[in-house]
C-alpha cells in the first residue's frame, strides 16, 4: 500500500507541475497514464465501470469524474485532478485542486478550506475512533467557513480494490459508524462547493456538477490507521 500510494502521489505531483493554460485536458490524461506505466503501475480508473480515461479532470462547477478530452484549460480555472493506480496488487487514490494562474480570493479560500478539511479528517482518523468522527471533522471545518460538503459521493475503504468498505461520508455525527482499527486503509476525499451541496449528473453519465453551478474543490489522500496519527500513504 505504501508503494502504491507513493507512486500515485508522484503521478499527481507531476500533473500539478504540468498544468498550464492552453493545455487540453487529454494531455494531462496522457501524462498520467504514461507516468503510471513508467512506475510499474496500472491506472485504476480506466475501464472502471466503463470510465474511458486514466484520470478525472473536473473544472469549475464540475465536482468529480470529469472525462479528459479536447477542453482547453484557461487562466482562472479551478481544476480538480483525481488519480488512482494499482501497483503490485494494491491501490492508491489521491486528488487535489489547483487554481490555474490568477484566481479570486474567494476561490483560493475554497481550495484552502477543502485541503484543510482533508487534514482535519486525517487528524480524526485514529484507532478506536469511528468513521462518523472523520465525517464530522470534515463537515465542521467546511461549514465553519461558509462552504458546503457534497453528500452524494463519499470517501471509501481501499486496499486490493479501489473501493472497499466502509463508506466515509464527508458529513455525519460523531461517535457513529464503523470503528477505525489499526491497519485499516481508507481514502478520505472531501468534495466542497462554494454554494449548495446538491449535485447533478451530466449527460455523459459521469461528470458530476454542482446543482447551482457554484465552484467546487476536491482533495483526497489514501491513509492507514495506526496507533497514533494516521499515516498518509499518497505522499512522495
Ligand atoms: Mg477515491
Description:
A hairpin with a 6-residue loop joins strand 7 (about 155) and strand 8 (about 165-170). This protein is about 30% helix and about 25% strand. Helix 3 (about 105-125) runs antiparallel to helix 4 (about 130-145). It is built from 4 helices and 15 strands. The strands form 4 sheets. A 5-stranded antiparallel β-sheet has the order 8-7-9-14-15. Strands 1, 2, 4 and 5 form a 4-stranded antiparallel β-sheet that branches. Strands 3-12-11 form a 3-stranded antiparallel β-sheet, with no helix packed on it. It has a single domain, classed as Creatine Amidinohydrolase, CATH 3.90.230.10. With about 240 residues, the chain is α+β, with helices and mostly antiparallel strands. The protein has helices at about 1-20, 25-40, 105-125, 130-145; strands at about 40-45, 55-60, 60-65, 80-85, 90-100, 150, 155, 165-170, 185-190, 190-195, 200, 210, 215-220, 220-225, 230. Magnesium ion binds next to loops.
Key words describing this protein structure:
15 strands; single chain; Creatine Amidinohydrolase; binds magnesium ion; 236 residues; four-stranded antiparallel beta sheet; five-stranded antiparallel beta sheet; alpha+beta; 4 helices
